[in-house]
Amino acid sequence: xxxxxxxxxxxxxxxxxxxxxxxxxxxxxxxxxxxxxxxxxxxxxxxxxxxxxxxxxxxxxxxxxxxxxxxxxxxxxxxxxxxxxxxxxxxxxxxxxxxxxxxxxxxxxxxxxxxxxxxxxxxxxxxxxxxxxxxxxxxxxxxxxxxxxxxxxxxxxxxxxxxxxxxxxxxxxxxxxxxxxxxxxxxxxxxxxxxxxxxxxxxxxxxxxxxxxxxxxxxxxxxxxxxxxxxxxxxxxxxxxxxxxxxxxxxxxxxxxxxxxxxxxxxxxxxxxxxxxxxxxxxxxxxxxxxxxxxxxxxxxxxxxxxxxxxxxxxxxxxxxxxxxxxxxxxxxxxxxxxxxxxxxxxxxxxxxxxxxxxxxxx
Length: 363
Description:
Layout: E1 5-7, E2 11-12, E3 24-25, E4 28-29, H1 39-42, E5 46-49, E6 53-56, E7 59-72, E8 99-103, E9 106-107, H2 111-121, E10 126-132, E11 135-141, E12 144-145, E13 151-152, E14 157-171, E15 175-178, E16 194-208, E17 217-222, E18 229-237, E19 240-245, H3 247-255, E20 261-262, E21 271-277, E22 284-293, E23 304-308, H4 311-317, E24 328-331, E25 334-343, E26 346-354, H5 355-362
Parallel strand pairs: 2-17, 20-25
Antiparallel strand pairs: 1-25, 3-4, 5-6, 6-14, 7-8, 7-14, 7-16, 8-9, 8-10, 10-11, 12-13, 14-15, 15-19, 16-17, 16-18, 18-19, 21-22, 21-24, 22-23, 23-26, 24-25, 25-26
């Protein structure tokens, strides 16, 4: 029987008890507050080099993606209609994982756009442009007035999504790669379709240690502010998230880094290796073993089979935990890949992506 594994995204915990109910990651509500995290909290950066210069950060960050249109959460009845019966105007016409792009030809960017259009309909039929399975279709729905007097369609939508992960590298010109796998939509496991996004430094708030049958998790808090902004996300792919770092900070980062070569997958060998992670609160190298190299892996982000051997990391996290996706894998002084998955029944073991697969996806 195949072993179950999961991508190692982390959850985000909040501050001051103000919830943002449209955003949930790893079962933890995401909260927003303006502010700046001190440089000591984020650690130093590490640069890597081959044909073109790459840079790496074993640095937890929060990724915040703007969805393409509005993503439909699990739909359901929402209240009582005028005739005293509970109804759902969306019925089977709208499905979880659909993207609602427009209403009556007007593009939707934010949830508020949809609320406004439905409210202004006063119960008249609306034509929704819906993207499903890479095909766009039109669906007609008639809003129903709830007992509170609001017009509703009976569906939940979100216009953004966030989580904790690790940036793997960045280049001299500011391009970065992170996670080693894509951000899922959180509803049906499909890749999240995005219209841009941002990455921010995240502050470590705690670790839920992994154990057999229960993957652990890094919990971090994010403070949304200019001083905490790290870069912009441009693409979300099956091999990672990619984008551009903020230029004002790039020169400082490059001046304070060391260089490593990037290895091709044919140069990787079974045996000792290390991963960078900041799960302890500071960026450190931890010992792992590469137990198998699958050069022909059908899954582009599972070519490396990794076992954590470092006593300190095992004591701290139990092995690989959610939030460590993207942690750089170093062997013989070269960057060879990034951590992507953990085995549910054995958190000491997991998978990684070849760094060349990430670089190909970034092009």
